[in-house]
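Thread: Newbie trying to understand structure tokens

Hi all, I'm a second-year student working on a class project, and my supervisor (Dr. K.) asked me to get a predicted structure for one chain before our next meeting. I've only ever worked with sequences, so writing a 3D structure as a token string is new to me. If someone could post the tokens and maybe explain what I'm looking at, I'd be very grateful. Here's the chain:
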Amino acid sequence: MKKEKAKRKTSARLSPAKGKAAKHDDFLTDRANLALREEVEGGEESLGDRIRRVREMRGLTIRDLSSRTGADIDTLERIESGETIPALGQLARLGRALDMKMGYFISPGIDKLMTVVRKDERQPISRYGETKSMEYGYFYESLAPEKADRLMEPFIVTLVPTDKEEFSTHAGQEFLYVLEGEMKVQVGDRVDFLKPGDAVYYDSNQPHLVRCVGTTVTKVLAVLYTGSK
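---
Reply by user tm_fold:
Sure, no problem. This is what the structure looks like when written as tokens:
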């Protein structure tokens, strides 16, 4: 009798309630994607590979993804092939468009209560090196790549001198704390300049821009929350 009850409880957890659509919040928690997740984690996939795989799993074309994110097709093809590294704002929009948390694309993570990243163990997000990131004026390193189902995304962001000023808009909020150098931040029409020890917190659904000031490299602790689905 107890076995029968346990079986019914398990069945209830696996099946959506009658009259309701099945909900899949995230690639990491959706049971329908479990086999594919295991296949992904068993191999060595790049950030671009993960984006392409999830897009195909969702039954979307590059054109569909372009329509959902506002990114042009050429840019998306370069991202999926690993020729370019998406900016953090782009990554957040891709996650939203593909019904995924952006953290999955950085790393699927491991189901642990706590993960530690040592200073000398931090790795850039992409395996293709820092130089390709420079066109965006920064590169970034995840501070929690092994934590599965993350609600926040902490990074060390290194801003490098650039003449480009590219605004970003995506769901969620951002917190930035300047560690080294000087940083310009603009949210909407408001512009400010931050030095070591200064911090800023803003809604990232507003057009925003972050870049280093002058010719000095700037390092920032950044924590992103891209919202839940």
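A couple of things are worth pointing out once you decode it. The two ends are 39 Å apart (CA to CA). The mean pLDDT is 76. Feel free to ask follow-ups in this thread.
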